Structures are given as structure tokens and as C-alpha cells.
Predict the 3D structure of the following.
Amino acid sequence: MLGTLSAFDFFYLVLEWPGSYCDAATSCCYPQSGKPASDFSIHGLWPNNLDGSYPENCDPSRPFNASQIGGLRGDMDALWSSLSCPSSNSEKFWAHEWEKHGTCSEKILRSQRDYFAAALRLRKSVDLLGALEQAGISPDGKSYALSLIKNALQDGGYAPGITCNADDDDSGSSQLYQIYLCVSKENLEITPCPVLPRSSCHSRVEFPLF
Ligand SMILES: *[C@@H]1O[C@H](CO)[C@@H](O)[C@H](O)[C@H]1NC(C)=O
């Protein structure tokens, strides 16, 4: 395996709704940098293949090194922080994303800095919340038809994969959790998805407060 650069077809930019992360069975803790904005945050930038498979953990010889992303810290804290407990500085989360997915991106994004910077730039280039709010869909704890959410995102120019998680209140209601946008490995811009993850959403989904 030494020196093998992993091949892949495109990236998923996976964004998540923090309110749904927190309103689930595993509770959340705000990061040491403080409560994140009420907006979609980054889960990761994941190399993926057209057949749905993906490479992972491609280069154990290149561990995460926080000092290589020094200048990105403010944006990382604002847009890519960890909500897992106990409260942390998010570095374990970033190390996991880098080691599992980033090391498989090396053909396209050669350094840790390039990898994290690309995800931040892409996140800043989209406005999912704005597209939803245009259609009267906001994080108010109410339920919306999944078709309405899809149409609103489509009108905003996005046709993403959508996954849901379960509310922890025993109602079994499904919540808008992760949005999978696709990114071309040729030009590193958002592109229509060649393949979508299986949706776990019911026909109506809750959009929790955060
Ligand atoms: C992390 O990166 C810095 C700056 O490039 C470097 O000086 C240091 O040796 C690296 N640390 C490790 C553990 O590789």
C-alpha cells in the first residue's frame, strides 16, 4: 500500500443541522469556542465512488497536525466545530475527519491545510438555510413535508441527499439531520450528485430549534 494514492470519483460535502444533532439520544455539548451559529455546519468532505463505496484511512503516516491549520482556526471553530460530549476544542473531530477522509483526498487536496480550507470555502459558498427560509421553512421545531424541503432546496439550486435522525422524545419523529452536497474533484465546485445516500427520512420531518 505504500505510496498508493486512493482513487475516487467525487466528494460529498456533508453538512449537518446542529439542532438535530443535539435533539437526539446522544446529547450534545457546545464546543469550548462557544455555541455555534444556528446554521448548517460541516460534518466532513468525503471522497466517494460512483458505486457508493468510499476509500477510508488511506495514509496512517500523515496524522492530523493542528499547527498546519493555524490560520483557519476561526473559521473552523465557527463552521466545523464538534458538538460531542464532553465539550472539546474540536481537534479530535478534525483529526478523525482528516485521518478517515482527508488522507484519501491527497490526489486533489495535497495538504491538511488545502483539505480543510476547501471544505470551509465550499460551506461558505452555499446558503441552505436561506433557500429553506425563502420557502417559509425555518428551524422552529415544527414539521415540514420532506417534498417541500426538497423543492425549496431545488429552487435554491441544490439537489442534495437528505438524511434524518430520530427525535429523542419517543415520538419517533424524524428530524432534518444531514445534507449531502456533491463536489466535483475536477474543479472543486458544487455539482449535481451522481449518486445519493439512502434517505432515512419520513415523509414529514421536524426542523428543530438550535
Ligand atoms: C506539525 O506541523 C508543524 C508545522 O509544520 C511541525 O513543525 C511539527 O513537527 C508537526 N508535528 C508533528 C507531530 O508532525
